[in-house]
Amino acid sequence: SQTIHQWPATLVQPVGSPLSLECTVEGTSNPNLYWYRQAAGRGLQLLFYSVGIGQISSEVPQNLSASRPQDRQFILSSKKLLLSDSGFYLCAWSDIASPQETQYFGPGTRLLVL
Amino acid sequence: AQSVAQPEDQVNVAEGNPLTVKCTYSVSGNPYLFWYVQYPNRGLQFLLKYITGDNLVKGSYGFEAEFNKSQTSFHLKKPSALVSDSALYFCAVRDIRDSSYKLIFGSGTRLLVRP
Fold first, then answer.
1. Average pLDDT over residues A39-67
2. What residues contact B12, with CB distance under 8 A and at least 6 apart?
3. Interior CA angle at B60 toward B7 and A100, to 5°?
4. What is the pLDDT of residues A81-113, one digit of tens each?
5. Rounded CA gap, B6 and B30, in Å?
6. Which of A8, A42, A56, B70 is 20 to 30 A off residue B56, Cα-Cα?
7. Strand A19-26 to strand A55-58: parallel, antiparallel, or no bridges (unpaired)?
8. Pairing of strands A87-94, A73-78
């Protein structure tokens, strides 16, 4: 079966510091991968999605970037964090071969920028 | 443009009573529709989806949802609520013609089931 991992689970970082959040998927190949941010425990904002290695689509202009160095690895980064980057970051995957393309979510990373 | 509306920020029900969490959508073509549940400090868990066929879809934990094309709705229902159903519920939609694979999520509805 497929599993999705995110780490770290929680992170407290000072303003201006760099960021690297990692997401990996097991048990599938060539998944679509997604990064979401959830602010204040409510709505989800799609940040990036990827349909293959090195292929990244950005949904909103922001202080963050994403990379996909391997088929099942998706990384969210920042060179200098802002206070507004605080939130709950969720990674998700979907099976491109499945017409329904249900997205399955990881456990999330809670980021607090101070 | 695709959109999803969850008109209620919070739904309160007593344990044992039926519950409904509302969702309406807007897409240009035919929709794929999804419901997810989120417990505190956790990721989203997939509950159920409508792709095609029977308008009544059954999912995990006794939940079901009814697709109504004329009303562009996909309300989540459960005949008898449990205290453990208390959580944040998200409706999501994708236009089947959209090749970007993106889901559009509603703003979420908090369900509170009283003992």
1. 87
2. B112, B114
3. 80
4. 999 999 999 999 998 777 667 899 999 999 999
5. 19
6. A42
7. unpaired
8. unpaired
Sheet strand arrangement including A3-7: A3-7, A19-26, A73-78, A65-70
**8 A C-beta contact, residue B6 and residue B91:** yes
Residue B24 one-letter amino acid: T
**Three-state SS string across B49-84, please?**
EECCCCCEEECHHHCEEEEECCCCEEEEEECCCCHH
Amino acid letter for position B95: D
The reply to whether A56 touches chain B by the CB within 8 Å rule is no
CA B71 to chain centre: 15
pLDDT number for residue A100:
67
Facing A108 at nearest CB: one of B34, B42, B90: B42
The answer to whether A49 contacts chain B (CB < 8 Å) is yes
